[in-house]
Amino acid sequence: MSDRMLEEPWTLSPSVALRPEPFGALAYHFGNRKLTFLKRPELVEVVRLLEHHPRLRNALDAAGIPPEQHDAYAAALRALAETDMIRPRHQEAA
Amino acid sequence: MTLAPERPTTPQGRPAGGSLVEQFEFGLDAPICLTWELTYACNLECAHCLSSSGRRDPRELSTEQCKAVIDELQRMQIFYVNIGGGEPTIRPDFWELVEYAVDHQVGVKFSTNGFRITPERAAFLASTDYVDVQISLDGATADVNDRVRGAGSYDTALKALANLRDAGFSDAKISVVCTRENIGQLDDFKAIADEYGATLRLTRLRPSGRGADVWDELHPLPEQQRELYDWLMAHGEDVLTGDSFFHLAAYGESLPGLNLCGAGRVVCLIDPIGDVYACPFAIHDQFLAGNLLGEGGFKEVWQSSPLFTELRSPQTGGACTKCQHFDACRGGCMAAKFFTGLPLDGPDPECVQGYGETALAGDRLVPQASKDHSRSQASRNAPVLLNLGATRRRPVSACNEDPLAGGDLS
Known about the structure:
Strand order of the largest sheet of chain A: 2-3-4
Helix content of chain B: 25-40%
Number of strands of chain A: 5
Order of helices and strands of chain B: HEHEHEHEHHEHEHHEEEHHHHHH
Number of helices of chain A: 3
Structural class of chain A: alpha+beta
Mean pLDDT of chain B: 90
Oligomer: heterodimer
Shape of chain B: globular
């Protein structure tokens, strides 16, 4: 079964800034001061696209990630969610 | 003469993918860990001061110049800086600069001996986000601390920690330079941190600055290095290290963090006059990349200086590359080798496989300090160790006209 996260709306956290780097990007969270490295340019693109798409799956499609890799990307994004680098979009109003 | 260890004659391309360590070896567009020493002035005169601080440099950057630097850090998306000195809070514009930085998306962690952390300042700090405070403490007891940092400095540090705690400032850092005299106190340091709601940060003693004078006496003994490693393995997640103990990775398992010399790759130092060095422990002409007051600013120095370009290629030669532990420790700390007069492509002086001791026993020429802002005379509260070191540190001046200068009549 594919990851439920793929069907949910997500967004980059408002406290996070992305800095482009040759290998991808560096993400910094001004609130919890966590620094995370996004080691693939494709992942950076996905993270940037999140807020513009109704579901994570659409953002992956828009970034050109083949469907067979969607679960792997969902796992990587779930790790980013653990430190609030990205968050479910319905929390925005909270 | 090339400075760095043997590297490929034609620059190798950056690998696509690969580990972060491999990526970091080729450098980043902007540093991750930037230290900015705001002043060489200090009320203390610690025996092991890595920047030989004491007196203010008259060329120190002005308030406006500092703000221009912060603007540039913001443009480069350098999200936080470690501010130090000297004692940075001595600058009359210190708090103004801290506020300016956090207002420009540059978070601040500053290191202090605590003497200006009054209850009022502690309340201000507790009210701000993005400011982190690090209090230096080099002994869990006054006798051990004050021997290195000077009389009264232990009480000053604990008073600052108490003021921060009482003001509701959470998670201050207690920064400890690990020495032969305090490694047996690691549990006591942890207890102090817990008592003040602080996080312990342990870093490595480098033979940099005045540290060169006391390193022989203070650097941990081999069995103490093992003790430290075991302690870090047991407490690694709760304790910060500035990733400074990667030379210990050759014991086996890597410690948490970046196990790589980041000098000029992901780390650098801006000194009080705007000089940019490869790392905070390398304040020496050999590691000076340029000055940010030049036309291209800090960005040009970081991205294009010949020194940093040279540091951003993987080491391919030297004794260490043939060692089975090279992938773990990457040859250790560049500054530790340089300031003990060891070749940069050879073992770290504290190599845990024992190659450092062999190297130290051989022929070597310890480089003279090229930057020194120490006070000309030690003060009344000066640490005991400073005075012991002072007898052998001052090189004979070429301008000394005394006919007996440097003469050894004993």
